Protein 1
Amino acid sequence: MKRPADHGMTLLEVVIALSILLMGVGFILQTDAVSHRYLNKAEVRQQMLFYAAGILEATIEGESPTAFPPFDSFQADVTTTSQANPYLERVEVKVYRKNSPTNPEPVRLYTYRVKK
């Protein structure tokens, strides 16, 4: 009986196969990490937008809101400016993260209300 010349994979072939497998797994893990980072950034921005809308509405109603979790990591700056119109004033709310004021970008909402 003749034996086949190739009984299995050589050590070099095993090393090459494992390195190709590990490169593929590495790329998958890297894309997963990037997608989670962008998802988290979008969620934080949406929370900032909801918080700014609540602060803006409370300011228009004349109340002073307090921050509860998950909004206690945000800072809100409320500014009121007079306009050329003698009956209206502009109310602006700027919300940003306390520990990272530029990541994500601050959210700004504004509206007009009748002067008191």
Note: The CA atoms of residues 74 and 100 lie 9 Å apart.
Protein 2
Amino acid sequence: MWWLAAGLLLALLLYGLRKKDVCSEHLAAAGRAAEARNWGEFDRRMAQARTLAQRITDGRSRQEMGADIEYLAAHGAYARNRKDDAVAHLTLALRGFEELGEASRGVKLAAGHQLWGEIAFDTGDFNEAEKHFRRAAVAVEFNERPERVLASLKSLGDVLLTQQKYEDARAVIEKGIEFERRLLKDTLEPKIQQNSTVIAMAIPDLALARRDFASAERLYREKVEFLGQMEAPPGESELTRHQFHLAAAQRELGRVQDALLTLQAAVESAERDFGAEHPRTEQARRRLADTYLLAEGER
């Protein structure tokens, strides 16, 4: 009867794998619904994914799928400005990612800490944001994933610049520039490499970190004008990020009225790119309100 038992085991394994595939399809559909801010569809797809994940017979696959579900649930809660729910989901996701094999462990841990850092940054908990962005960078630094490290270093630089920790920000930004140069050179043809200089996208950040506010203002303005003409995937626009830094440079130069105009535009772009309820939009509104208070104090 061993062959009957073996056949039954194979049937269960294939059934489990099929449920994992269908579960992944529901997760992908949930991700598309989140991009469209169709939260009814998002919740429906997530519920279906959870039901199927619980039926996966392979324990490791079930655990990994469960962690992926919690990670996407955290994204949904974050986009709807539900910090406590997002953190609760992320805690479970990171716990699951810790148990994964080396092939995907670092990348997924980095993604989880990156998201937690974004949540903390947008809600004004800069110490927490700094901690998670550092962890995100460390999680992938030795996995030959320079593009992942770059994203975390860029976010860490944002937090440090926001806190006016200019020396710390400069060290992080310079490290990020090296990763950026390496990443860009790897994608260029060898002949082009020999005859071109890679211009790092973080140069405006470096100018701000060096307290060269006039250069930073000019460079960020160029970035804002350029990005304002481009379309980015929902939730991935960098326009608001550059507007925040542009306004900071303008404030340092004593041009508070210009900073007000920049932050008014930042609120509008955040509402368009992230949604009216998104924490990034809330952050833009807070920065605008703080700058209004500064302008009133100068009158």
Note: Confidence is low (pLDDT under 50) at residues 1-17, 190-199.
Protein 3
Amino acid sequence: MLRIVTVMLMVVCGICLGAPESNYIYARAAAAKLKGEEALTAFIALADRPFSAAQKADALEQASALAFEQKKYDQAMELAKKIPIPSISKAAQIRILAGRGEWDSLLAQYKDEKIDDWWPNYLNGEAYSCRGSAYAIKGDGTNAAADLRKAADLTCYDGNGQGLLLIRLGNVYRDLLKDDTRALAAYREAYQTWNLYKRLAAAIEASGILMRQNKLDEALAELKTIELDKVTYPDWRGRLLAAYASILAKQGQKAEAIARYREAAGLKDMDASQKTAYEKILRDLESETAVK
């Protein structure tokens, strides 16, 4: 999405400024058709041509991303630092640090960064997401929650990304801040996004909190916010069936729980380790039931 918005910005700049800037659109399209090292070289060359600062920024951003994909991490960072628009340069650098899991370096350089002041502001959501992830991994729940909240609010154009951010926010509230109420609110907010599987993941997390609180009927109701018939991807269908089964088992409804685990274990094309886990739980539950 970031690249799409960047290209739109470049198009506008090209139309407004005229030649030679308008030729950037065609030169960029040609570079984008290339692969690997050729594409990287082409975008670096574009940045050396007499285009506008915005277009040079786009060329260097694409070059940096390509270098990163090719595991040329030092070159990727060098190119990111050359981007002439400060916010785009910083966003590219943050993206690289996050992509490499260099969380200490990310926070050392950008913990005091005033991301709200950046222009263009379409970059802000991703930057907050990366910094929020760094805070979360380092165990700073307060700052992680603040950044992930902003990231989720700024990512309203992308239901899939927003759903993921809300789940991560819920996890921070639950695991780092020990605040189940806010965790549940974040998970339930994800239900408003369009992606079925993000909604499903959020429902499972919310149900888990309620199950831990021994609110079993409420936990089941949380799962029922997702229509099981629409969940066709085997791994996710298995997770939802297993979530139902675990609650049913705790309620003492062993036969129903066994049926759900059996269905989950019998799904085709499911992750092998997931299938093995369900089969073990099923055997244990069947043995326990047989003894009684």
Note: Confidence is low (pLDDT under 50) at residues 1-18.
Protein 4
Amino acid sequence: MQFVTLMELKKDKKMWELFKYNSYWIKELNRNPASIKNYREEMKAKYKLRTTDKINSAIDNIDMISSVLSVLK
């Protein structure tokens, strides 16, 4: 694996954790270092770091707060 790719993985703790548990990425990144973008997208989907995931989480929190407030009335 290229040194630059390995350092990019170690730079982010979540990327490194996912890399340790999904060893098939070793083969993929050895063959094609440009697939780091695909790896990053998979990591964001797994750990729910995408913008849509954050918006959905905020909406769920607002719904929960409003239902608690409606019960308290």
Note: The longest helix spans residues 51-72.
